[in-house]
Every structure is written in C-alpha cells, then in structure tokens.
Amino acid sequence: YLMYMRPESQDSAFKWEDLMMKNNSELLANLGNFINRATKFTKDNFNSTIPEMNLNNDDWEMVARVNQELSNYISLLEDAREREAITSVFSISRLGNQLMQHNTPWKLVKGS
Fold first, then answer.
1. In Å, what is the CA distance from 47 to each residue of 33, 53, 108?
2. Looking at the predicted structure, is the pLDDT value of residue 19 above 90?
C-alpha cells in the first residue's frame, strides 16, 4: 500500500480508510486470493510441482496477455513508476483469478 500511495509526481495523503479498502479489495481479494488459490491447488493436486501441460490457443492467448503485463511492469519499474507497475501486478493476478474461475481446474482434476 505504501509503495502504491507514495508520491511520485504529486503529493499524496495517507488515509486509514483508503488503506483498509486497498488492503481488502486489491491485496486480499485480488493478489492474495490468486496466490492462495494457485499454490494450494498445485500443492493439493500435484505435490507442489507444476506438471507438463498441453496449451490450447486460449491458453497461449492468456500467456501473451500475462507476458504483455510483465513487460509493462518491467518498463514501468525501469522508469521509476512504481505505482503504475504495481497496477500491472494486480492485472496479472486478476487474469489468473479469471482463468481459474473460468476453467475450474479443481473439477477437471477430479474428473481425470
């Protein structure tokens, strides 16, 4: 939160309400949720090891979207634009959450 709210090109103001909102909506509901879902799913179903996968066209499109966000993240960090860079991290976790929700891999694993 402090990295996100720190002044870059203009003044910023710390507000406890904003800290709670950002913590709950972005850190917990978005990034924390994705990290927890992905690591728990991998641990529970694949002994903490990512198995070999056969990617389809939709999967490769998602890989391209994540790679674009990652390139954007790196570029923003190189330009010392940390606030915008953090937004790219949240975009990646949002994509991951959407992918897991759409594909419901826990159902696929039980069916195999």
1. 20, 15, 17
2. no
Q: What pTM value is reported for the model?
A: 0.76
pLDDT digits (tens, 9 = 90+) for 65-94: 999 999 999 999 999 888 889 899 999 999
> To the nearest 5 percent, what fractions of the chain are helix, strand and coil?
75, 0, 25
- Asked whether the beta carbons of 94 and 30 are under 8 A apart, the reply is yes
- Asked if residue 62 lies in contact with residue 99, where contact means CB atoms within 8 angstroms, the answer is yes
Where would I find the H helices in the chain?
2-5, 16-22, 33-46, 57-78, 82-103, 105-111
Please give the C-alpha separations between residue 26 and each of 19, 92, 107, in angstroms, as whole numbers.
Answer: 10, 12, 27
- What CA–CA distance (Å, rounded) separates 89 from 73? 7
